[in-house]
Write a structure and sequence with these properties.
Chain A: Belongs to the somatotropin/prolactin family. Chain A: One of its GO terms (molecular function) is growth hormone activity. Chain A: One of its GO terms (biological process) is animal organ development. Chain A: InterPro entries: 4_helix_cytokine-like_core, Somatotropin/Prolactin, Somatotropin_CS. The complex is a heterodimer of chains A (227) and B (648). Chain A is an all-alpha fold and 227 residues long. Chain A is built from seven helices and no strands. Chain A has a domain of 130 residues: Growth Hormone, Chain: A (Up-down Bundle). The termini of chain A are far apart. By secondary structure, chain B is an alpha+beta fold. Chain B contains eleven helices and 26 strands. Classes of the chains: A mainly alpha (227), B alpha+beta (648). At the A-B interface, helix 3 and helix 7 of A face loops of B.
Chain lengths: 227, 648
């Protein structure tokens, strides 16, 4: 009996090895391919595509939400209500010149920080949007899609960091009991403004991710001409 | 000193006073407003404002901004670069993804006014410059030209590093048109335009937009002229032209070939007026009385409503199968009559009387042929008889023919024959009524010697188109042919009585009295049967007519001659052949209801014929039908009109 199991282990040895390998080589963007084959450039391209898509969808979601729920006079003053973006504390460079001065490592880490900080609030946003009366399905679908893609983006950036910087990072553990705080039955307008601010901030941060990644790509391909 | 200070004070007060008076127009400056802020490349931006009323005093403006997450207020670093009433933020002062809170202050001697604050984020106010270096060239794709438009992004926008992503749009129009054709080119810097008009001049413009921001202005117009390429389309046009010409020629030829029939189809000839026996000269004479009198048809409309079906006469043929000579003679007479009358053809295309006339001739010839055949079968009795019969025949034919012809073509007179089948209760009464109208016609028909007018009643169908041919045979069989030519339908359709259907041949048997009359050089007794009427069962009631006398007595008036009251049979031309036989004593009435050729004779009184309604003695009932032979006791049947009897 033991001999049989030993034989099994001997035979299945290569399979065990191969099964363990793809964990950190798994392509985050939907296609499974063997790790050695995917190049850094291709990976970066895919990450950038992800970021572009996320930004576009978040822009559409924000416009939809603005049209449907935000009263017209309040549309122009996004921060009037005093809600600041949750990521304002993050040390993200805010000008091109600043961005040109930071290193690749710092770029990637900034991106990762942004992505990771938005995963949970998006889930929260989804829950609150469900509570709205007459929220269009398109809006709900978009926000849901965005939150899913954000997780994929995070994984891609982690792999990228590992490849480029040879640093091992861990993905955020998705916890159900996050920052979800329901204030009982908040006032409608207050809730609307809060969600509106959330969406606007996310839109801005998605754009940040896209720009940062693109600049990173430029540096990778043409170091000297990237202004 | 005090005086000067007082003066100064006074002056100041005066000044202030005047200023105050004037200063009713002076006021603190009006509220300025920020009109717009734009960033051309997402690295710098400019804000423009509008000043309100200056209050009459020199006013200065200042722009203050506050960055997000900071309470520090800064003033605009550059008021001049961007022009009047503007503030330019250079790269060092521009932060993206950061909201700016900008306020403009207008101040003068009397005060200052703050504008409404505006929050902007540089990322969202990007409006790039228009694309540069727009080039348009004409290229060829398999002989067909197309435009290739290429351009460069504005030199300030950093699209290479991905800092800005621009999408482009171009528009094209012909020089003489007003509508632009828009094309979205995406992120590419080149575009092809197809489907050009040869020889036209095109105008092309390009503009761009960041993925979040505003559209740029249109670039300067580029003109391009497309060369002519009509040469390529020429062979096609030549082919089309040839094909059309070919089709046209074929159509012309077809039209030419069928032109005449087509003309008749489109413009059918108009039939002229045609009334039988009506002389158009009357119309030309213009005498209305004559016209109307000639148009008057006596007996029409019928005083009693006739049964239309009863009046239907088509073809009644009484055929005398023998006597070839008679036929020949009759033929001569026929021709004579033909010539005498003549058929003047005119331009009236609808003239049917001519045609009917010719048809009658044809039928007559037919009868002659049949007669010839019959003659061959039967033997001839005697030449004397033939001669006599010939004589008799001649006259009879003449008059019969004349009578036949006269109502058709004779001018100045229209003979209308009263309906034979009018349900007159008494033949005698009808006879009277008919007599007067028929008198005239009879004169032509029968000579006094042969056909005493009084003893004959000659009634034809109302249409007056029945023709008679009397052909006597040596066996005293002769057939009268009364026809109604079908061609006369055009004139007779109005009258229901004149619908001819079938042909009925009635062979009448010349009665022995007639023969007897013929034997004598001057036959005086012409025996023939009068058609009395037709009852509702389409039975023609014939009445033998004695010469010059009534026939009511019956038995005493029996003809001495042969009795042609038996139907011999029907020949193959559907003609009744009457057989003559010697009558027996006591046989005064014959009922011929059931004619089967067996020669049974039933006394009228003893027969039970439901159809006979006239309880008059010596009424010979004659049934007309396709397959019936009618036997007339005396002479021959004057007029017979009948149609197919359904019950036979």
């Amino acid at each position: 009996m033991v001999i049989q199991r030993a034989v099994w282990v001997l035979f299945l040895w290569p399979y065990l090895l191969t099964c363990s390998l793809p964990l950190d080589c798994r392509e985050d963007h939907g296609s499974f391919s063997r790790c050695p084959s995917i190049s850094q450039e291709k990976l970066l391209d895919r990450v950038i595509q992800h970021a572009e898509l996320i930004y576009r969808v978040s822009e559409e979601s924000c416009s939809l939400f603005e049209e449907m729920f935000v009263p017209f006079p309040l549309q122009l003053q996004r921060n009037q209500a005093g809600y600041a973006c949750i990521t304002k504390t993050l040390p993200i460079p805010s000008s091109k010149s600043e961005i040109q001065q930071i290193s690749d490592k710092w770029l990637l880490h900034s991106v990762l920080m942004l992505v990771q900080s938005w995963i949970e609030p998006l889930v929260y946003l989804q829950a609150t949007l469900d509570r709205y009366d007459g929220a269009p399905d398109m809006l709900l679908n978009k926000t849901k899609w965005v939150s899913e893609k954000l997780i994929s983006l995070e994984q891609g950036v982690v792999v990228l960091i590992k490849k480029m910087l040879n640093e091992g990072m861990t993905t955020t553990a998705y916890s159900e009991q996050g920052l979800l705080q329901f204030d009982g039955q908040p006032e409608m307008l207050e809730s609307v403004m809060r969600d509106y601010t959330l969406l606007s901030c996310f839109k801005k941060d998605a754009h940040k991710m896209e720009i940062l990644l693109k600049l990173l790509k430029c540096r990778q391909t043409d170091t000297y001409n990237c202004a | 000193m005090m005086k000067t200070s007082a003066e100064v004070n006074l002056l100041l007060l005066l000044l202030v006073f005047t200023l105050h008076v004037k200063g009713m127009r002076y006021s603190p400056p009006g509220k300025p407003a920020l009109t717009r802020c734009r960033s051309p490349e997402k690295e710098t931006f400019t804000c423009w404002w509008e000043s309100g009323s200056d209050g009459g005093l020199p006013t200065t403006h200042a722009l203050f901004y506050r960055k997000e997450n900071s309470e520090a207020v800064y003033e605009c670093p550059d008021y001049r670069t961007a022009g009047e009433n503007s503030c330019f933020f250079n790269k060092n002062n521009t932060s993206i993804w950061v909201s700016y809170n900008i306020t403009v202050v207008a101040s003068n001697a009397l005060g200052s006014t703050f504008s409404d604050p505006v929050d902007i984020d540089v990322v969202y106010i990007v409006k790039p410059n228009h694309p540069e270096m727009v080039t348009v060239t004409v290229l060829e794709d398999k002989g067909w030209p197309f435009l290739r438009v290429s351009w460069e992004p504005p030199h300030k926008a950093d699209t290479r590093s991905g800092w800005i992503t621009l999408i482009y749009e171009l528009r094209v129009k012909l020089e003489e048109e007003n509508d632009w054709e828009m094309h979205l080119a995406g992120q590419q810097k080149m575009f092809n335009i197809f489907s050009l008009r040869s020889g036209g001049t095109y105008l092309v413009q390009v503009r761009c937009k960041p993925d979040h921001g505003f559209w740029s202005e249109w670039s300067s117009t580029s003109y391009i002229k497309v060369p002519d390429y009509i040469q390529r389309e020429k062979p096609m046009w030549v082919l089309i032209t040839c094909f059309c010409a070919f089709i046209f020629l074929i159509l012309t030829w077809l039209l030419h070939m069928n032109g005449h029939s087509l003309k008749d189809f489109i413009l059918p000839p108009v039939p002229g007026p045609k009334i039988r026996g009506f002389d158009k000269q009357l119309l030309k004479n213009g005498k209305s009385d004559e016209i109307f009198s000639s148009l008057v048809v006596s007996g029409f409309p019928p005083t009693t409503s006739p049964n239309c079906e009863d009046l239907l006469v088509e073809y009644l043929e009484v055929y005398v199968p023998e006597e070839q000579e008679l036929m020949e003679e009759s033929k001569d007479l026929h021709d004579i009559c033909l010539k005498s009358e003549g058929c003047t053809s005119d331009s009236d295309s609808g003239r049917g009387s001519c045609d009917s006339h010719t048809l009658l001739m044809d039928k007559f010839r037919e009868a002659k042929e049949e007669k010839r055949q019959r003659d061959q079968e039967k033997s001839r009795t005697g030449t004397e008889d033939q001669r006599q019969q010939k004589d008799w025949e001649e006259e009879g034919l003449t008059y019969a023919y004349e009578d036949m012809v006269s109502p058709n073509i004779s001018s100045g007179r229209v003979e209308t024959w009263p309906s034979l089948f009018s349900p007159l209760p008494q033949y005698s009464s009808s006879r009277h009524s008919q007599k007067s109208s028929l008198e005239k016609a009879k004169k032509h028909c029968f000579s006094d010697s042969l056909f005493p007018p009084g003893s004959t009643s000659f009634s034809l169908d109302q249409g007056g188109q029945t023709t008679m041919e009397a052909i006597r045979s040596s066996n005293r069989e002769f057939s009268l042919r009364i026809k109604q030519p079908h061609l006369l339908h055009s004139h007779t359709q109005a009258r229901c009585q004149l619908q001819a259907h079938s042909e009925v041949n009635i062979s009448s048997i010349g009665c022995k009295q007639a023969l007897g009359g013929l034997r004598s050089p001057a036959p005086h007794s012409a025996e023939y049967v009068e058609v009395q009427r037709v009852n509702e069962e389409n039975t023609v009631l014939l009445q033998p007519v004695e010469s010059g006398h009534g026939h009511i007595d019956g038995c005493s008036q029996l003809p001495l001659g042969k009795d042609y009251s038996r139907v011999q049979g029907v020949d193959r031309y559907n003609r009744l052949l009457l057989k003559g036989e010697v009558p027996q004593e006591g046989d005064c009435l014959y009922d011929y209801q059931d004619m089967t050729g067996d020669g049974t004779e039933n006394c009228y009184t003893s027969s039970s014929v439901p159809s006979i309604q006239k309880p008059t003695a010596c009424i010979h009932t004659v049934i007309m039908g396709h397959d019936e032979m009618v036997l007339a006791e005396n002479g021959y049947i004057d007029t017979l009109t009948a149609r197919t009897l359904p019950n036979y």
